[in-house]
Specification:
Blueprint (H helix, E strand, L loop, with lengths): L3 H14 L16 E5 L3 H13 L3 E2 L8 E17 L5 E16 L4 E15 L5 H35 L1
Parallel strand pairs: 1-2, 1-3
Antiparallel strand pairs: 3-4, 4-5
Helix pairs in contact: 2-3
Amino acid sequence: MLMKKPIIFIVAILLGACGYHLRGALVLPEGMKNIYLQGGSAEFRDQFRIALKSASGNLVNSSAEAGMIINIVGEDMQRRALSLSSRGRSNEFELNYRLQYELVKGDNVKVLERQPVEVRREYFNDQQDIMAKDNEEAVIRSEMYQQAVQNIITRIQVVLQAKAK
């Protein structure tokens, strides 16, 4: 038992030293620690706040406090039926989430022109279990917002690293 603790401690230190990090974990550049999000739906803002919090970032309440400002220019979530049953009810749906944003530094200098983000998901709609399918759609929508946030943050990181060189 006494040997296990030091071994676990050493392995943890080695994993941290080699640059290993959990999937989905973000490392934010210094300029992205305080971000102001202008526009966007409440669900999108919540997912953005969660992503920043997990990366020791902060979603601030005013543009004056921010190092970066993300302007959400357009946002749209659509749902359409892909297939119908013999009774005319939808068996399969497609969710399509579109977002356009631009990135501005705190001093109103555009860093990134308008960029699109699009996330699509399909799911089967079981007519026998409608309550569970409503919950499934809510979970899928939440995952779509998460993916859009991850895409935006990754693009911003790449842009900031390229401009730093």
